[in-house]
C-alpha cells in the first residue's frame, strides 16, 4: 500500500484514460484495507482508486503508477477458491524515493490485490496488462508538480482546473467549451469596468456642466476659463463628452448612408400602401431588397432616427400605444380620421380586424387608424367581452 | 320598477364604455348622470349600491348585451360627487347617496312647505315630515332619513331650523 499516492484524479498531459470498473476493494498484500466499494480507473500511466463519484469530480484519490507493477495475476475468490476469478494481484516493485504521501508509509507486502465484487472484467484485465506491458511512461513521461514520474524529462503539464477524465472527442469538445467560456468571461469582466468608467464620466460631465452654468449665471465671463479647464481635464482622460456621443452613437456614416438607402427604397412603397407602414414590415421589405447584406432591427431603428437629418420625405413615428411606423411626411392624421370615420358610418361599427380587411392594411395599422380617429373625436369606442369596436361618435354629433 | 323613457344612448353600445377622449367623455358622463337622476327620481330611490348594480336595468341593457362595469359606475358617481349631486356613504365607496335634488333644494322645498302650512315656530318630528299624511304628495315624502337630515342641516346652517332629539325621536323646530 505504500506505493500509492494521494493525488487529484486528473489526467496529466500525455496520459490517456483507458478503462474503469466499479465495486473494487483494495487489499494490502493479503490484508484487507479500509478502501472498499470504490471505483478504479485505468490510464496509460496509472491506476486510480477512489470512492464512487470522487474520480469523475476530480477529487483526491489513490494513485498508483503502473511503473511499479511488474507482474499480474488472477486469483479466485470465495472459500477454497471456488466461484470464478475475483481478484487481480499486482506485484509491485519498491517504492521510489520522493514519492508523494499515500495511505501508508511502509508496507510489509510487495503486492496488492484488487478485489472485484462482480468478478473480474476480462476486458479490464487485458487492458491493465496491456498498459503495464506498453510502458508508455518510458516514451511519454508524465510530469506532475512535485514528483517527476519515473524517467525524468521536466515538462510542464498543467491540466485545466476541474478537468474531468473523459475520453476522446467529448473530452476535447468540453475543453474547447471551457476555454471559450473562460475567454468570454474575461472579456465581459474587462468591459464591465469600461462601462462603469463611462457611467462615472457621464456623471462628471453633467456635474461640470451644471457647475459651469451656475458660475456663469452668477459671475459672467469667469466661467469660460473654468469650463475650458473642465473640458481639458475630461479630454485628458480621453473622454470627449461621452454623453452626446452616446446620444448620437448612431451618428456614423454607416447609419446616414443606410438612412438614405431606406428613404430611396421606401418612398415608392409607402405611396402604394397609403403613406404609412409598420416598422416590422419596413424591415422585411428592406432586407428583401438588399438580398445578401441584411440589416438588424436595431440598425434599421437607428437609421430611421436619422431620416430627418437627411431631409427624407418620411419619418419615424411612435404612437402613444407604442407602435412604431414609418410615415410619409405628406400623410395627415385628419385625412385618415375622416376616411376612417366615414367607413365606420357606412358599416355601423368597425373592429380593427374588419377595418384591416376593408382597407387592406395590417391589423396593427388598422388599430392605429381607429385610435387616431377616436383621438380626433370622430369615433367612440365600445369595449366588451366581445372585443373592441368603434362607433360613429354620436355623443358629439347628436344633440 | 321605474317607468321612464330610456334615452337613445341607452341603446348605444359605446355608452357603456367610459370614453378616453375627453370631450366625448364629458358628454357621456353628463348623459349618464341625467339618466341616473331620472331613474332614481321616478323610482323614489336615493341609494345606489355599486356591488348590487349589476342587476338593475339602469346599469345594464340586456338587449344590446352591455353593462357598466363597477369601475365605470364609480367613475360616474365620483364625477357626480364633484358637482354635489352624490356622496359616498362610507369610506369603501360602494354605497352612494344620490341627490336628484341637491341638499339645498331639498331644504328649501321643505321650508317652503313648512311656511305654507304655517308650521313656523313649531316642532315636527322627522317621521312626520317623511311619512306623515300631511306631506303625502310632496316630493320629499318618503325621503331617505339620512338625506332628510342632511337637508335639514343645510337649513340649520342658514338659521331656519334647529335639529333636536327627544324621546328616541328626532325632531326639528322651524323658525
Automatic annotation (TrEMBL), chain A:
Protein's cellular compartments: Cytoplasm; Endosome
Main location: cytoplasm
Domain called GLUE N-terminal: residue spans: 1-144
KW Iron-sulfur (keyword) present: no
Keywords: Cytoplasm, Endosome, Protein transport, Transport
GO cellular component, one term: late endosome membrane
GO molecular function: phosphatidylinositol-3-phosphate binding; ubiquitin binding
GO biological process, one term: protein transport to vacuole involved in ubiquitin-dependent protein catabolic process via the multivesicular body sorting pathway
InterPro entries documented for this protein: GLUE_dom (IPR021648), PH-like_dom_sf (IPR011993), Snf8/Vps36 (IPR040608), Vps36 (IPR037855), WH-like_DNA-bd_sf (IPR036388), WH_DNA-bd_sf (IPR036390)
Keyword ATP-binding assigned: no
Origin: domain of life: Eukaryota
TM regions (residue ranges): none
Record note on quaternary structure: Component of the endosomal sorting complex required for transport II (ESCRT-II).
Family: Belongs to the VPS36 family.
Function: Component of the ESCRT-II complex (endosomal sorting complex required for transport II), which is required for multivesicular body (MVB) formation and sorting of endosomal cargo proteins into MVBs.
Protein name according to UniProt: Vacuolar protein-sorting-associated protein 36
Source organism (scientific name): Leptosia nina
TrEMBL record, chain B:
Transmembrane in keyword set: no
Cellular compartments per GO CC: ESCRT II complex
Family: Belongs to the VPS25 family.
Domain of life of the organism encoding this protein: Eukaryota
SUPFAM superfamilies in the record: Winged helix' DNA-binding domain (SSF46785)
Protein name (record): Vacuolar protein-sorting-associated protein 25
GO molecular function: protein homodimerization activity; structural molecule activity
Pfam families: ESCRT-II
Coiled coil: none
Signal peptide range in chain numbering: none
Keyword NAD: no
Location (main, coarse): cytoplasm
Record InterPro entries: ESCRT-II_cplx_Vps25-sub, ESCRT-II_cplx_Vps25-sub_N, WH-like_DNA-bd_sf, WH_DNA-bd_sf
Location of the protein in the cell: Cytoplasm
Amino acid at each position: 500500500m505504500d506505493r500509492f499516492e494521494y493525488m487529484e484524479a486528473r489526467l496529466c498531459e500525455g496520459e490517456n484514460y483507458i478503462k474503469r470498473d466499479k465495486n473494487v476493494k483494495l487489499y494490502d498484500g493479503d490484508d484487507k484495507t479500509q478502501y472498499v466499494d470504490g471505483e478504479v480507473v485505468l490510464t496509460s500511466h496509472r491506476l486510480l482508486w477512489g470512492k464512487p463519484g470522487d474520480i469523475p469530480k476530480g477529487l483526491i484519490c489513490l494513485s498508483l503508477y503502473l511503473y511499479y507493477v511488474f507482474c499480474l495475476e488472477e486469483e479466485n475468490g470465495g472459500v477454497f477458491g471456488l466461484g470464478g476469478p475475483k481478484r487481480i494481484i499486482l506485484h509491485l516493485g519498491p517504492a521510489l524515493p520522493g514519492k508523494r504521501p499515500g495511505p501508508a508509509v511502509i508496507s510489509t507486502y510487495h503486492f496488492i490485490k484488487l478485489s472485484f465484487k462482480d468478478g473480474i472484467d476480462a476486458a479490464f484485465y487485458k487492458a491493465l496488462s496491456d498498459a503495464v506491458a506498453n510502458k508508455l511512461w518510458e516514451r511519454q513521461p508524465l510530469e506532475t508538480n512535485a514528483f517527476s514520474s519515473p524517467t525524468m524529462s521536466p515538462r510542464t503539464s498543467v491540466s485545466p482546473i476541474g478537468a474531468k477524465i473523459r475520453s476522446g472527442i467529448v473530452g476535447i469538445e468540453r475543453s474547447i467549451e471551457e476555454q471559450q467560456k473562460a475567454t468570454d468571461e474575461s472579456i465581459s469582466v474587462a468591459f464591465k469596468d469600461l462601462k462603469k468608467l463611462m457611467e462615472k464620466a457621464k456623471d462628471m460631465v453633467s456635474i461640470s456642466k451644471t457647475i459651469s452654468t451656475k458660475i456663469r449665471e452668477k459671475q459672467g465671463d469667469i466661467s469660460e476659463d473654468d469650463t475650458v479647464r473642465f473640458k481639458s481635464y475630461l479630454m485628458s482622460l480621453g473622454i470627449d463628452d461621452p454623453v452626446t456621443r452616446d446620444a448620437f452613437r448612431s451618428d456614423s456614416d454607416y447609419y446616414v448612408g443606410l438612412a438614405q438607402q431606406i428613404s430611396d427604397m421606401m418612398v415608392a412603397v409607402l405611396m402604394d400602401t397609403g403613406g404609412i407602414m409598420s416598422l416590422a414590415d419596413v424591415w422585411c421589405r428592406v432586407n428583401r431588397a438588399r438580398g445578401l447584406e441584411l440589416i438588424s432591427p436595431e440598425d434599421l431603428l437607428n437609421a430611421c432616427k436619422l431620416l430627418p437629418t437627411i431631409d427624407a420625405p418620411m419619418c419615424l413615428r411612435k404612437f402613444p400605444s407604442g407602435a412604431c411606423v414609418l410615415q410619409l411626411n405628406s400623410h395627415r392624421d385628419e385625412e385618415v380620421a375622416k376616411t376612417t370615420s366615414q367607413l365606420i358610418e357606412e358599416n355601423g361599427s368597425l373592429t380593427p380586424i374588419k377595418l384591416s380587411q376593408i382597407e387592406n392594411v395590417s391589423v396593427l395599422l388598422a388599430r392605429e387608424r381607429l385610435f387616431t380617429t377616436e383621438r380626433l373625436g370622430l369615433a367612440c369606442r365600445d369595449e366588451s367581452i366581445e372585443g373592441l369596436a368603434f362607433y360613429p361618435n354620436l355623443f358629439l354629433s347628436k344633440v | 320598477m321605474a317607468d321612464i323613457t330610456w334615452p337613445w344612448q341607452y341603446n348605444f353600445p359605446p355608452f357603456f364604455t367610459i370614453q378616453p377622449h375627453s370631450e366625448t367623455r364629458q358628454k357621456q358622463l353628463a348623459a349618464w348622470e341625467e339618466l341616473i337622476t331620472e331613474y332614481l327620481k321616478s323610482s323614489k330611490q336615493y341609494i345606489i349600491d355599486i356591488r348590487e348594480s349589476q342587476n338593475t336595468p339602469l346599469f345594464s341593457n340586456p338587449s344590446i348585451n352591455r353593462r357598466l362595469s363597477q369601475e365605470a359606475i364609480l367613475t360616474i358617481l365620483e364625477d357626480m360627487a364633484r358637482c354635489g349631486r352624490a356622496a359616498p356613504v362610507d369610506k369603501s365607496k360602494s354605497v352612494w347617496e344620490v341627490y336628484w335634488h341637491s341638499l339645498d333644494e331639498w331644504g328649501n322645498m321643505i321650508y317652503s312647505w313648512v311656511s305654507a302650512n304655517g308650521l313656523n315656530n313649531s316642532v315636527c318630528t322627522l317621521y312626520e315630515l317623511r311619512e306623515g299624511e300631511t306631506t303625502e304628495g310632496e316630493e320629499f315624502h318618503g325621503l331617505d332619513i339620512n338625506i332628510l337630515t342632511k337637508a335639514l342641516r343645510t337649513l340649520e346652517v342658514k338659521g331656519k331650523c334647529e335639529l333636536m332629539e327627544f324621546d328616541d325621536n328626532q325632531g326639528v323646530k322651524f323658525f
